[in-house]
Hints:
Elements: E1 5-13, H1 16-27, E2 33-37, E3 42-49, E4 52-59, H2 65-73, E5 76-83, H3 87-96, E6 107-108, E7 114-118, E8 128-132
Parallel strand pairs: 1-4, 5-8
Antiparallel strand pairs: 1-5, 2-3, 3-4, 6-7, 7-8
The structure holds zinc ion (ZN).
Amino acid sequence: MKPTHIEHIGIAVKSLDEAIPFYEKMLGTKCYAIEEVTDQKVKTAFLRIGQTKIELLESTDPEGPIGKHIEKRGEGIHHIAYAVKGIESHLKEAEESGIRLIDLQPRRGAEGLDIAFLHPKSTFGVLTEFCEDKS
Ligand code: ZN
């Protein structure tokens, strides 16, 4: 496994309307994309800082993963996503080294990336995402 960089950091927020202006001001940049990922029951907003992005995540359903996360732990960092080249081989290698996978196969995430999550129980408490831009 050899990720190339941190692609994004996912932050769970209660309200994009409140969080976006704050992050735009703090990072001195405009949110460049808002996208709903229906199968994750989430609305995402992206800001760019260097080669990394901040992904703000607002739940569209209290029963969705972000809704549950906020109910249990409140707002805050939800996951860290590493850019990889060859997501399938990264997943295979992770699995072979005993890391518990949430996604055995990559699926389509925001911004058209192929993404897959590793279980936080295997990654010292951090929900970890591999993602690959195959476009
Ligand atoms: Zn993500």
